[in-house]
Amino acid sequence: MAIYAPGQRILLPVNPWFIAFTLVIALLFGVLPWRDVRGVPDLLAVVIVFWAIREPRKIGIGIPFVLGLLMDAANGVLLGQHALAYSVMAFMANTLSRRILWFGLPAQALHVLGILLVGQLLMFGVRMISGASFPGFAYFVGPFIGAALWPVLSFVMLAPQRRPESVDETRPI
Amino acid sequence: MEHSPPPFFNRGPAPVVRVTFFALLSVFLMVADARFRYTEPLRQVLMTAAYPLQRAVLAPFEAAGRIGDYFQSLSDLQKENAELRTEKLKAAQDLMTLEAVRAENTQLRGLLDARDRARADAVFAEIVYGSRDPFARRVVIDKGFTQGIELGRPVIDTTGVVGQVTRVTPLASEVTLITHKDHSIPVQVTRNGLRAIAYGTSDGAAMELRHLPINIDVQTDDELITSGIDGVYPQGLPVGKVVRVDRDATFAFARILVTPLAGTDRQRQVLVLRPTEEAPAYPAAEEPAAKKPSKGKKARRSDG
Predict the structure, then answer these.
(1) What is the ipTM of this complex?
(2) What residues form DSSP beta bridges with B188?
(3) Could you tell me the pLDDT band of residue A21, with boundaries at 50, 70 and 90?
(4) Distance between A144 CA and the closest CA of chain B, angstroms
(5) Which of residues 88-147 of A touch B (CB under 8 A)?
(6) Which of B54, B130, B203 sits opposite A35 (nearest CB)?
(7) Where in chain A are the domains?
(8) Does B247 fall in a domain?
(9) Which of A52, B67, B121, B224 is deepest in the core (most CB within 10 A)?
(10) Domain assignment of residue B215, given as a range
(11) Predicted TM-score of the model (pTM)
């Protein structure tokens, strides 16, 4: 459970099924066919980072690793490439969780941009070592779009936790 | 620090330990995958598990495409029909002469004691999606080894060679395009019969003919077909067209750029060829078994 910054709302505890649901949706987004995948944000990475920041006790490093393996197999890339990037990103998000939540949304997005770029650079380095060709600079646009999505994502993903705890049926308004 | 924390606070190994473990595990997997291909079974299982997921994701797009096709206007279809009719008529003439020419060719080849040119039969497949790997251009087709696809099969479309099957799962397979950096294909210039090898380039859009001398007889707009000497691609399939020839004397070789004829961006239907005839064995391995008949024929010919 996070320590709250001044003015931040106290949230309901998260439903583990909701975490699983968002991860599955992001995984599905990850296997969508694109004409050119360069520049497409890795939504699964953003969602993993989100939960690793919000719920470091629930999303550690093992689950991102397994999800990364699935991404690798589904996309037919080097097995372990996404797994490595996701585990390292989740670790960074877990460790920085206390710090990041203290900031407002734009500053949080900047932190997330750093984490996503580290992941992207890891994958880039791994593929360069294994002998792939340079994919072009568009490859590094994805993390920026992912970070830009952060405020929207935070709003949507925290919506279930922002419900009132007990609905007062007799309240006039 | 000598005391272990009470079980209430016990959270397992420290995060640094955990991330090191998983990072090492993934590095191990990557090395096993890239160097030794040990992970193929694991990948097969994961890919087969992910296949229904992928089809489910693709379903709305396919449905939208089908609905679009359904509402395609009548006039479009009529126009296309008329075009196809004229094309068929044109092709019919060629086809009629083709049978005669083929028979003649077989006879002549028989006389020359040459191996019959393999007539490949083919499996029809559709490109499901382009691979989501930004580092390498591959496409995934909707037929796997349950439909008889095997590793190394050449893949063509109506305009030329697309590539080669490089990974097969039960229901889908992956095709590496001829423009892939690590792919090479033996070609022949139709104009003068010159043989060369076309390599993919790192940008994945074109191919180049390497290691040809500067004064080589290759011009722009020369058409290249497969020469068939690799035993993978059947002979005579169109591959590409020469778009640029740089003859710079400061380099040892000419720089010849080729664009592929096959349109993986435009077409969805492809044919996976199935060579009916095995490629001849390498001469050294062939020697003890296959010497006799060829000797006999040669002797006969020298007699006559």
Answers:
(1) 0.85
(2) B195, B225
(3) very high
(4) 17
(5) 88, 90-91, 94-95, 126-127, 130-136, 139
(6) B130
(7) 16-154
(8) yes
(9) B224
(10) 184-261
(11) 0.75
